[in-house]
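Let us work through a complete example step by step.
Step 1: write down the sequence.
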Amino acid sequence: MSNRFRSEITEEEEQEVVPEIAEKSELPKNIVTQFFTEGFVSKQAATETLPFVIFLAFLAMVYIGNRHYAENNIRKIDKLNKEVKELSWDFKTLKADLMLKSTQTEVAKQVDTLGLKEPIEPPKKIIITSNEN
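Step 2: predict the structure and record it as tokens.
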């Protein structure tokens, strides 16, 4: 087609030009475009349900955040349980050492360095008689 005025174009040429202009570029054939263009869901219905979809996405994020929070709490609880067990073992060990060190023979060994000695004679009983008659 050459550059000519509109009045110079014949009807035959007009008919040839019209289909060329009327052709649209076709959308790529994939699931999403077929879903919206072939009438499964109209654009109006999709935009009406958009707030609900956003709400569902928000709930999903809250659910994921709650899951992470719960897992972190479980890890902290496990860590504290291990610490309690270790402290319990330390307590039992220290208690056993104290029981050993408080026996009569251990006390005698510790006091021997200070110059004190264990009495050999049994203690004497003191009896007081009252003469108030």
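Step 3: interpret the result. Residues 10-106 form one domain.
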